[in-house]
Amino acid sequence: MTSTVGRLCFSNKTALAPMVRVGTLPMRLLALDYGADIVYCEELIDIKMVQCERVVNEVLETVDFVAPDERVMFRTCNREKDRVVFQMGTADPERALAVAQLVENDVAAIDVNMGCPKEYSTKGGMGAALLSDPDKIEAILTTLVKGICKPVTCKIRVLPTVEDTVELVKRIEKTGVAAVAVHGRMKEERPRHPVHCDYIQAVAKTVSIPVIANGGSQDWVKTYSDIEVFREATGASSVMLARAAMWNASVFRSQGALSVDEVIEEYIKYAIRYDNNIFNTKYCLCQMLRDRVESPMGKQLHAAQTNEEICEVFGMTDYYKKTQAALEERRAALQANHCHSDQPTLEGDIITMAVRFERREYPPQITPKMYLLEWSRREKLEQPVYETVQRAQDRAFQSTVIVAEKKYRSALWEKSKKFAEQAAAIVCLRTLGVPEGKIGEKNSGLVNKRKREEKRNGETGEDCTAAETAYRKRHITQSSQKEEEKN
Ligand SMILES: Cc1cc2nc3c(=O)[nH]c(=O)nc-3n(C[C@H](O)[C@H](O)[C@H](O)COP(=O)(O)O)c2cc1C
Fold first, then answer.
1. Which of 263, 383, 420, 437 is the most exposed place for a label (fewest CB within 10 A)?
2. Ligand 1 pocket: which of 14, 20, 24, 48 to mutate (most atoms within 8 A of CB)
3. Do 464 and 426 share a domain, yes or no?
């Protein structure tokens, strides 16, 4: 039997409900700041999550689950580790288990969404489609409960009758879940329809696991004290809020709500600090502005394309700059720490070294890439090929250069693609013991710009051998110029 020590308990709690686009890390942290006990992430679909890689983001101090297209699907941090519930959309027990196992060490519990009535969810048999397939519900929940150590929960909508709803939750309870969240609306009902507190009450009376009442934002919960009123009206153990929290997350604050403008400011701070997806940030801010979304401020927000522009709208440019500078400093410090040695090491089939391209260390218009290109030509090798990737969490670049069928790469990530390529070229040149064009480097005999110009003017550089001169005649003037322009 699984130990309950340190496990998230769902009795007598207030929770931030799962909300697509809204329930990302900034909103979850904000809800925790204001007093929420539990925070659910937005629903994440199992098919997408199962392809993700877990990446520790040292700059942001987060754990990221990154899709093959480099999108961060789920970002979390230590602060919420014991309180965050990972909600997934699934219709497949094995895939659900694979996802749960991927994230379970970074979250407090796993939830399955059985309430989403949207077609994109139901057509795949997920969300509210599960409500008419209790065998599937049972299979998914049983597989999860058996397969992971963290508590498993689910979130349902009520069925057309109280009796059917109660029967379903009894079956769900038998799977061993830690709690069930009940949104007191039927799948055909819209958010404006009244919530069926009596259905939730009947469920709460019947089962012994904690029932989390949901659906009260419109009619019941406007202030903190209303949360308890809604809990009593439903007889539930806990309450989960979606829209009320989205409109003003300080609804969780026992001392009373703060102004929306204050909440917006705190939200933006987290959004910048944790590099929240800009579309999600904008969506969330539009929801908070509510009627003001058509105001000049709302229109400016609509037009904003970057986090910096969002900050401008809300007069937070200074905060933006300070945070970026702090993150940049952290990134540099981490890189310096990683830069223990410039000895080449083998990572798989790639020769790596922790080096950076420092522009000031090279004469104007001279770059390691140029040196590598010229050296390759002299050695009658194919032209170096650069392959560059960009990572999602900080949009930094890393290049691999292929020379004579060997791969070279810097272990350090660079801010631009050009610099990443230069760093890769340095690794290659240093590994091969070939000069790289640095200021003060002993003259290599590889061509530099001055000499090329001399050559074009009919002079012969004094360091050049006859072979080199001949080689230059053949190749350099025709092709290096282009390369140089590219650099
Ligand atoms: C913007 C938004 C996104 C939502 N996304 C999800 C979701 O990802 N998963 C889910 O189970 N419910 C989702 N819901 C439904 C809410 O969790 C909740 O069940 C519903 O809004 C009723 O609660 P309320 O009256 O407190 O708003 C979403 C609701 C909103 C408003």
1. 383
2. 20
3. yes
- Edge to edge, what strands does the sheet with 385-390 contain? 345-347, 350-353, 406-410, 397-403, 385-390
Average pLDDT per consecutive 10 residues, the chain (487 residues; last block may be shorter): 75 98 98 98 97 93 94 97 98 97 97 93 92 97 98 98 98 98 96 96 98 96 97 98 98 97 98 96 97 94 94 97 94 75 80 90 92 94 95 85 95 91 96 90 60 45 35 37 39
Separation between Cα atoms, residue 470 and residue 487, nearest integer Å: 25
Tell me the two tokens of residue 239: 């309450």
Active site residues: 116
Determine the Cα–Cα distance for residues 71 and 113; give it in Å rounded to an integer: 22
If asked whether residues 58 and 190 sit together in one domain, one would say: yes
Domain that holds residue 475: 345-486
Residue 107 covered by a domain: yes
> Nearest-CA neighbor of 378 among 435, 438, 299?
435
Whether 187 is in a domain gets the answer yes
* 160 and 37 belong to one structural domain: yes
User: Which atom of ligand 1 approaches the CA of 127 most closely?
Assistant: 11
